Amino acid sequence: MKKILITLIIAIIIFFGIVWISVTSSTAEVIVLKEIKNGEIVVQNNIGEIKTIKAPRIIMKLLHENNEYFIHYNKRRWGKPVLKKIEP
Length: 88
Known about the structure:
The protein is an alpha+beta fold. The protein has one domain (25-87): CATH 2.40.50.140. It has one helix and five strands. The protein has a five-stranded antiparallel β-sheet with strand order 3-2-1-4-5, with no helix packed on it. It is elongated, with a radius of gyration of 19 Å.
């Protein structure tokens, strides 16, 4: 009985650990593109927050610094935000 209880507790802890790590939030906002780096963009939103977001390199040539864009990105609990969509 004790072994089953310990196994169950360990399984629950592992399950919650996986859920905790994989939680993703999705955000959409209007930003000003401040800087284009290697594989990342630095953006500033309307309230002045500056964020670094991973972006596909293929779109880097299409973006221009100091222009306003509407972006949609995902952020995992422990990772950097990842760009999913960008519109002028």
